[in-house]
Design goal:
Number of domains: 1
Structural class: mainly alpha
Distance between the termini: 40 Å
Number of helices: 10
Strand content: under 5%
Order of helices and strands: HHHHHHEEHHHH
Length: 237
């Protein structure tokens, strides 16, 4: 369970922080509500220790042992499993064109890509355009709320935490087999976290080296990224 907890934490931490934030000033200047900062800092410190001593070594070993072609196939499969929720969220955000692209991407990769192991859709000009329920709630006008550093999941806020829960519940593994498939879903999250960690090591390590206060930097990048994503959903760009 400790290994699973570390993996789940890193999956969300990395996905939320590794994307380059928007350069727009409005995102930098928007205030961040953080009434739980002492607890958040304590939680972050504990899970960064887990990342350093558990996740990072495991992920590095994975990158060295597993061939790059197999890692890409695993990555493609995990992305394909998430495409139904991505397509639905684009539709809920009022972007039917994007939704249709992701539905086509799902169909092409599921059939021609051997169940999603190969990314055939990108060669057919059907790019992957991520979307999630937290982003959708933001497009609908729901505020992000106070900053939360969730145990096992990393940077978040109430809106995105609810969106995360809906995203997990909408996974095809859960929809087809119910919560009895929790073991398989946990394995999916662990593999995704392990696969993603080496590809984002440089970004995270540079942030930790260069930040005067890594907690503040991590929080700012998370909110910049999420607010930028919400604006993308609103504009349809």
């Amino acid at each position: 369970m400790k290994g699973l907890a570390a993996a789940l934490f890193c999956a969300l931490l990395l996905s939320g922080c590794a994307t380059a934030p928007s350069p727009a000033d409005e995102f930098d200047e928007a205030p961040i509500d953080d009434p739980f900062e002492p607890v958040n800092r304590h939680t972050q410190t504990g899970f960064l220790w887990i990342d350093d001593h558990v996740m990072h070594p495991v992920a590095d070993s994975y990158a060295e042992i597993v061939p790059d072609r197999l890692r890409r196939s695993i990555r493609n499969l995990l992305e394909t499993l998430g495409l139904p929720a991505v397509a639905v969220n684009h539709l809920l955000q009022g972007n039917p064109g994007r939704s249709w692209t992701e539905f086509q991407r799902l169909a092409v990769n599921a059939v021609a890509g051997v169940g999603g192991l190969f990314d055939v859709a990108s060669d057919l000009d059907l790019p992957y355009q991520p979307a999630d329920f937290g982003q959708t709630f933001g497009v609908w006008g729901i505020g992000d709320g106070p900053y939360l550093f969730l145990p096992f999941f990393g940077p978040s806020n109430p809106r995105d935490a609810v969106g995360l829960a809906l995203g997990i519940a909408s996974n095809p593994v859960v929809l087809l087999d119910g919560w009895e498939a929790a073991g398989a879903l946990s394995g999916e999250l662990v593999v995704g976290a392990v696969d993603g960690r080496p590809r984002r090591t440089e970004v995270l390590d540079r942030m930790r080296r260069e930040s005067l206060d890594y907690y503040v930097s991590l929080r700012a990048v998370y909110y910049q990224n999420r607010r930028f994503r919400v604006e993308q959903g609103r504009s349809g760009d």
